[in-house]
Amino acid sequence: MKQLLFLPFLIPCYLMAQPVLNNDILTQIGDIIQLQPVQPGNVTEGAVGADKIWDYTNLSPIPSSSFQLKYMDAATTPYVDSFAFSNLATEYVDDDGVVSYAYFNQTGNQLWFLGAAFSEAIQVLENPDLVAQTPLHFNEGHSHSYSGYFNYSGYTGSIYGTKTSKYDAYGTLKMPGATYPNAARTHTHEVRTDSVGFEAGAYSIDVTEEDYYAWFVPGIHSAVMEIRYSTLTTQTIIPGFPTQVTSLPTEKSVTYQLNPTSAVNEQPQPTPRFEMQLVSANPVTDQPINLTFTAQERTPLTISVLTAEGQLLQQTETVLSAGTQTQHLDMAGFPAGQYFIHAAGMNGQTTRKIVKI
Hints:
Layout: E1 32-38, E2 49-55, E3 67-72, E4 88-93, E5 99-107, E6 110-118, E7 121-133, E8 141-152, E9 155-175, E10 178-197, E11 203-216, E12 225-237, E13 244-247, E14 251-258, E15 274-278, E16 289-295, E17 299-307, E18 312-320, E19 323-329, E20 337-345, E21 348-356
Parallel strand pairs: 2-9
Antiparallel strand pairs: 1-3, 1-14, 3-4, 4-5, 5-6, 6-7, 7-8, 8-9, 9-10, 10-11, 11-12, 12-13, 12-14, 15-16, 16-19, 17-18, 17-20, 20-21
C-alpha cells in the first residue's frame, strides 16, 4: 500500500485509489482488439510509483498500419491439434494475407501462452509462458521461465525464455479521445533464446531482450497502451571458423488500442458441457474402474483422484472429443476407504464419490 495512506483524513483529495487488476482485463472469446502503431519519437514510459500522469494525447499514428487480433474458441482453428489444452486463440492476418494463430489456456485467473502457428511454421511451448495472473496489486509481480521448440522451413530449434513482470505504477492515462483516471502500468523484462542447428555442426543462437510497458484499465480487455524496446543479438557458430556475433540496434515500438473493449460489451461464447458417469459397481475393488464422459464439443479435461480429506493421489489429463467415450482408472494401489473422482475442464467441473473395499 502507498505510504501516505495512514493519513486519509488529512489529505484525502490528493490520494488516488490504487487500481487492482482483476479478470475483467483479460480478453474473451468474441473480442476483436484493434491496435494502432504510432511513431515512437519521444514517447516515454515515465517513472515508477503512485499518482502518475501519462499524457499521450498527441500520439502520431503511422498511416495504414492498424491491425486487429480476433479472439476465438481454439477448437475452431486449424492448428488446435498441436495445442491440446488451448481454449482461446487469436487470429492475425498480415499485409500479405498470411493468417497466423496464437494459442492460450485461460483458466480461472491465469492466462498461459502455449504457442503459435501458420502455414510455414509452428512454435510449441511445452513449458508454457504465463502471460497474466490476477488479481494484481500495486508493487506485485511474478517471475517464471518457459521453454519449447519451433519448426520453420524444415529446421527445428529450441526455445528458452525468462520473464519478470511487475505492476510498478498507477495514475491517470490520457489517450487520444479518452482519459482514464484509474490506469495501472506493468513493466516486463524478458530474455528469450532461440537456437537452431544446421548441417556440418553449424548452428545459430538468437537472443532477444525486451522491456515492455503496458497500461491497463479495470473493465477494459487487453492493454490500452504499450511501449516496447527490443534488442536482438545473433551468434553464428561454424566449426573451424571464428564465432560471428551480430547485434542490431534497439528497436522501439508504440501501440495503443482503438475503441477499447469493455468487459460488459463482449461476453464469452457458451462453453460446451460434459457429463461424467461411473459405470463400474460402487463400492469398487482393485479392478480398474470405468468412467464414461459425454461432451458436446472437444474438451480438455483433468481427472483427479482425491482422499476424503482432499489429498490429491492421482491426476491425469486428457482431451474429450464430441460424443461419448470411456476412461479407465486404476485403483489397485489405494487402500480401502472413501475417495472422490474429480473432473475439471474449462467448461466446469463434476465430482463422484466412490468407496473401495
